[in-house]
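Thread: Modeling a multi-component assembly for a lab meeting

Hi all, long-time lurker, first post. My supervisor asked me to bring a structural picture of a complex we are working on to next week's group meeting, and I have zero experience with this. I have the sequence lines for every component (328 residues in total). Could someone generate the structure of the whole assembly? Inputs are pasted exactly as I received them:
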Amino acid sequence: MPDTFDLMEFLPYRLAILSERVSRRLATDYERTHGLTVAEWRVLVHLLRVEAVSVRDIRDYANLDKPKVSRAVARLEEAGLVKKRRGSGDGRLVAISLTDAGRATMAEVLPAAQDVEARLLSALNATELKTLSRVMEKLHAVLDADPAARPRTHVPATENPDQD
Amino acid sequence: MPDTFDLMEFLPYRLAILSERVSRRLATDYERTHGLTVAEWRVLVHLLRVEAVSVRDIRDYANLDKPKVSRAVARLEEAGLVKKRRGSGDGRLVAISLTDAGRATMAEVLPAAQDVEARLLSALNATELKTLSRVMEKLHAVLDADPAARPRTHVPATENPDQD
DNA sequence: GAGAGATCGTTGCATTTGCAACAAAAGTCA
DNA sequence: TGACTTTTGTTGCAAATGCAACGATCTCTC
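Re: Modeling a multi-component assembly
Sure thing. I ran the full set together rather than chain by chain. Output:
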């Protein structure tokens, strides 16, 4: 056992600290102004991009488990930001979509979130951002190859499909 | 409101996903083999480096809130991995330290954690690692300048104190 | 088309979490 | 010294979490 193990230099810990700090900063805005949780925020964000989706779609895309999505959607429906109808076709699926109020809420909330991201990004130059993306993808790839790691729910489209 | 907002490209979200995935992979080992939670693991790791510390020290160093540290220590004491005595001197402080059993547990658990980290690091070359560190520090710096962000509990020693 | 198996979404439940309140001890200042 | 404030660690409590179980629906196979 090394007598010099420093948590502050341990990559997983450093990632966790940074990620948590950024998340909390973001949540500060939409939580205070609209009482949204992280799960609810992610659901709404996903709904911005698609017409109507199932719980499973949201779970995969937003990296949340089923109960979390289910309850987030329930609260959002209660709040009138989202509407839910039973799917035509497959009777198990639920078609979840934004209401006008939901879209209005996102219009109020998104700019602040994008502003936080913009400030983060503005601290990096083009090379750094590119390297960061590559590094994050490489770290994911290590976990992809690790049977003990949870699989990714959403693998990004490969830019270079022609590699080994 | 942009009609093209992709969560998958949103930096805070990408950080959260990667960080959570790495954390879970790590926790897999020490949780399954020794029933340790993340908080307990962090407490033990911190105790590896110091003789005896207070709850506050651990809170600052391991980025956990007071109740979490307090309860983690209570469980670890219950399990015999840690001992707690009232501080000589300041009567409020508690002196928390590892027992032999605690050291033995860490000797069993640390290698797996370091192995996970080593595999992650081995996917990066020297430049990438250095850039990653610099980028993470820059992102922290953005939050340091943001009054709405939670302050860092533990600011790293500056290598270059002579920059604007 | 009947039955076995898989999938979808919800709910139950024990545990954990975050935050505030609290008692005990130290520090402050007259 | 004595009142007031601050700090330390623990506890209470409402809410969130993770996981398994469940009913409902679909699919596949014979």
